[in-house]
Write a structure and sequence with these properties.
By secondary structure, this protein is of the alpha+beta class. Helices cover about 25% and strands about 25% of the residues. It has helices spanning about 1-15, 85-95, 95-100, and strands at about 20-25, 30, 45, 50-55, 70-75, 100-105.
Length: about 110
């Protein structure tokens, strides 16, 4: 079920951003205590809030014939709205934007 949630989040981000260059910050899964055997793996919870953002850079980074660069970003967090968790901010700073972004023309 978690794999389906993450796949759906990527598809939602593609529709929302209207491009395919999407980066998912892998969410921390919290195990659910369960006394029996679960047939589909170990049950776990994701943080309840999924966030989608578009990161834009007003110049291209690889193809100088394009006008700008952009990347869709997905992460999960426990609380609605700001502030973004410091751990997530640290991960965002390390995303190789110039290698995975899409480049577009106006």
């Amino acid at each position: 079920m978690i794999n389906r949630i993450l796949t759906d989040a990527k598809e939602d981000a593609k529709k929302s951003c209207e491009f395919n260059e999407i980066y998912l910050i892998e969410p921390v899964q919290r195990p659910i205590e369960y006394a029996g055997r679960y047939p589909f793996g170990d049950p776990a919870l994701l943080p309840p809030i999924s966030c989608i953002a578009e990161l834009w850079y007003c110049f291209p980074v690889r193809n100088m014939e394009k006008d700008f660069s952009s990347l869709g970003l997905i992460w999960f967090q426990g609380d609605y709205a700001f502030p973004i968790d410091e751990e997530i901010l640290g991960i965002i700073k390390q995303i190789p934007f110039s290698k995975i972004c899409g480049e577009f023309s106006y």
